[in-house]
């Protein structure tokens, strides 16, 4: 089973040179730590910054400079600042290539639920609905099962939907899976020491297994 | 140039009535109009509808207006981080309209730009789509969303001039420039107010045409929600 | 009969303190010369400038600073620059209070034609259709009759329309007229020495004459 | 930061094919991409559709492309000032789509912003409305207009950095920033190209995300159409 950091590390391998990327809160934020230095990529923060730098030192902290998770940040060289309408214009317009975000559930046709649990306090969708409706490539980072042990990879989402037919790939603590254009979770990689049977038993939606399924390799 | 200067926050918000619609700039606690919020707290008004991406925290920002029961309804994209908010919502004292953040931003921009409605992909297939017209363009589905306008918009900028031109700093820009365009009366509080002509026309984020009242604020606390430092 | 400069001078009296104003090409441009110094107003140029200053001296000329008529200009103190989408956002959004423009024809219900003559080369409407569809107050500056002597104030426009029911007031070389909300040109003022009969005979649309019609006064 | 630098105009426009759709920034002759226009003139391509507010003059700007018969269609708001243009139009060699300037600007902005259609009041009751859906909002009529996108957009800025961030000067900004957002490939020529990090992030008009190629242009003529001086 992968740690959160290992999930982030595996997702970082999906990043391509020259990409503009939006990282959601939680595990996705950790992805930034594992993007190889030789790749030139730019991180977008939907509150109005292209080019998120590292977290600041105590001396660098500026309350006027935060990311979408409200954390204090710095700006990378070559950054640009803009307003919220411009920010979502670049998201909706497809200029942000890759969105990495967390989920409560993903369905076998790529629907995602991550904003609302009926009966619990609703905090709102923030920018998630815009992000999943817009980017060409959407990767979900999440645990394979909920805390109570229920599969989060389902035939259909049971929770209110955030976006339909949008997720392309899922990296969990157990596996890397792709959404088949015709529906179904295509198993691509296993976490070290995790068997196909275990993944199968913990995937409630349709799983597609073709050929050898390699174990992930971490340097 | 037209002089938009008012004395202070108290004068700027003096005529905001009960039951009106306000827009307030800011994302989280960054770029919020701290001085105007304080001045509103001294006013005896209620029933406000506030359009703001977030709703502050219990003891800061819009959270203070909530605590004083001045707010009837919030139109926001994300409203966590606030226990009093949750209490009022669950007890039915407070209404909330949750809107995808990009749709919220674009609806506000449309309000200022004279665009009564537009199509956007956000929310297709979700409960956000309920009751809304949808249409396919180039093989993809979109929802029709309408403009948002307010009686007053209250924004916070870094620098401003007496003609109402504004410059923001860092990510404190966020919703402020678009909200400035969508209020019948826009009130701007700035950290530094300079005479018209002192700002470079090429560096202005909000042209003065959108701003009706401007003043230099004081004692900015600029509270940080998630103080995160590198190791 | 008024000269072009007198038409501009008369229109300048319509300008109110604190207004943002868009001046069209031709006579409307001349209005700027007659706005009283004590009024604080801002002139908008739809190519991206709020705060048009006087024409430049030879030394001040900057090819990167022109008005919508492509003339070199300067910037007034407190100016702001912006792009074309932002410019028309402020026009359409009703932030520009007053638009003054020329016309080929105006109808008695406030329709205006000023962009196209069938059979002649069509140059385009530029920003005129946006301007007339947006501003609360639209004043037309034009000659009362065409060069061939035909009235330009008609029951209905004969030329292709630029905008419907938008013109509020017309200042011609002969008269000042307002559009009645129920239709018709309400005669408000006569040019010095011009009779009501002459104006009537040169107005093809319905003219409304109520009470005394004063002569305009020029200082 | 991603480095978007190309050597020169020739390299920047080398793969623009015949019969594609181009957007070109500029208002009149102000802020037009002079270097890219010169480089296009050396290419053996034709059948271009060009979206540009104006069409240059006979011997400058887009007028040069027209003279060489490279243009099939212009999408513009105002196209006077050009005898060769008029000749080609009357002879049927050239097509022209005339669009209200604000609608043109908003359609281009919509193309870059993922908004497939929006309502605008411009053109209601005119021939611009023919064949278009109209609808009433708050007692006023509006037309539905669709986004405009292009295969390439070519813009001219004052300063730029290697990451593609752009700053414009004066009214040479005009259509450039919005067109930069609406081309699949955006080519930016700048008067001064600096390393990423040299521009103030707060002063950038076009964030580099929209720009795929950038180079420092040379020998700008910046011709003036109406040289007007005060007496």
Automatic annotation (TrEMBL), chains A, C:
<dbReference type="InterPro" id="IPR012791">
    <property type="entry name" value="3-oxoacid_CoA-transf_B"/>
</dbReference>
<dbReference type="Pfam" id="PF01144">
    <property type="entry name" value="CoA_trans"/>
</dbReference>
<protein>
    <submittedName>
        <fullName>3-oxoacid CoA-transferase/3-oxoacid CoA-transferase subunit B</fullName>
    </submittedName>
</protein>
<dbReference type="InterPro" id="IPR037171">
    <property type="entry name" value="NagB/RpiA_transferase-like"/>
</dbReference>
<dbReference type="GO" id="GO:0008410">
    <property type="term" value="F:CoA-transferase activity"/>
</dbReference>
<keyword id="KW-0808">Transferase</keyword>
<comment type="similarity">
    <text>Belongs to the 3-oxoacid CoA-transferase subunit B family.</text>
</comment>
<dbReference type="InterPro" id="IPR004165">
    <property type="entry name" value="CoA_trans_fam_I"/>
</dbReference>
<dbReference type="InterPro" id="IPR004164">
    <property type="entry name" value="CoA_transf_AS"/>
</dbReference>
UniProtKB/TrEMBL annotation, chains B, D:
<dbReference type="GO" id="GO:0008410">
    <property type="term" value="F:CoA-transferase activity"/>
</dbReference>
<dbReference type="InterPro" id="IPR012792">
    <property type="entry name" value="3-oxoacid_CoA-transf_A"/>
</dbReference>
<dbReference type="InterPro" id="IPR004165">
    <property type="entry name" value="CoA_trans_fam_I"/>
</dbReference>
<dbReference type="InterPro" id="IPR037171">
    <property type="entry name" value="NagB/RpiA_transferase-like"/>
</dbReference>
<keyword id="KW-0808">Transferase</keyword>
<protein>
    <submittedName>
        <fullName>3-oxoacid CoA-transferase/3-oxoacid CoA-transferase subunit A</fullName>
    </submittedName>
</protein>
<dbReference type="Pfam" id="PF01144">
    <property type="entry name" value="CoA_trans"/>
</dbReference>
């Amino acid at each position: 089973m992968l740690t959160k950091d290992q999930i982030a590390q595996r997702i970082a391998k999906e990043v391509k040179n020259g990409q503009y990327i939006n990282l959601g809160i939680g595990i996705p934020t950790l992805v930034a730590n594992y993007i190889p230095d030789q790749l030139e990529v730019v991180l977008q923060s939907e509150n109005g910054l292209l080019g998120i730098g590292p977290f600041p030192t105590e001396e660098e902290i500026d309350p006027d400079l935060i990311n979408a998770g409200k954390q204090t940040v710095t700006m990378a060289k070559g950054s640009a600042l803009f307003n919220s309408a411009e920010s979502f214009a670049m998201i909706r317009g497809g200029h942000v290539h890759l969105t990495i975000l967390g989920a409560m559930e993903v369905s076998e046709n790529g629907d995602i639920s991550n904003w609302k649990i009926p009966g619990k306090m609703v905090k709102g969708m923030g920018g998630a609905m815009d992000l999943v409706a817009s980017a060409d490539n959407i990767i979900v980072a999440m645990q394979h099962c909920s805390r109570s042990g229920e599969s989060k990879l389902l035939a259909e989402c049971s929770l209110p939907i955030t976006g339909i037919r949008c997720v392309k790939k899922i990296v969990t603590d157990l596996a890397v899976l792709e959404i088949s254009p015709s529906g179904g979770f295509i198993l691509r990689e296993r976490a070290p020491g995790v068997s196909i049977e275990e993944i199968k038993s913990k995937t409630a939606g349709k799983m597609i297994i073709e050929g050898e399924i390699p174990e992930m390799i971490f340097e | 140039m037209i002089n938009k200067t008012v004395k202070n926050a108290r004068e700027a918000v003096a005529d905001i009535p009960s039951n009106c619609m306000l827009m307030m700039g800011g994302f989280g606690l960054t770029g919020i109009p701290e001085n105007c919020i304080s001045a509103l707290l001294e006013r005896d008004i209620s029933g406000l509808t506030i359009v703001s991406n977030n709703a502050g925290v219990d003891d800061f920002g819009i959270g203070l207006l909530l605590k004083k029961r001045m707010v009837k309804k919030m139109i926001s994209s994300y409203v966590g981080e606030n226990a009093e908010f949750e209490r009022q919502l669950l007890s039915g004292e407070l209404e909330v309209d949750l809107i995808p953040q990009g749709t919220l931003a674009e609806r506000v921009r449309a309000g200022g730009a004279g665009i009564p409605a537009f199509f956007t992909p956000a929310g297709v297939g979700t409960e956000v789509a309920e009751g809304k017209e949808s249409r396919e363009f180039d093989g993809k589905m979109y929802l029709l969303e309408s403009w948002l306008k307010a009686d007053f918009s209250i924004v916070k900028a870094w620098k401003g001039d007496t003609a109402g031109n504004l410059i923001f700093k860092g990510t404190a820009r966020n919703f402020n420039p678009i909200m400035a365009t969508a209020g019948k009366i826009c009130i701007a509080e700035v950290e530094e107010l300079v005479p018209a002509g002192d700002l470079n026309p090429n560096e202005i984020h909000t042209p003065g045409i959108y701003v009706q009242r401007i003043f230099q604020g004081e004692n900015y606390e600029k509270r940080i929600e998630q103080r995160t430092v590198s190791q």
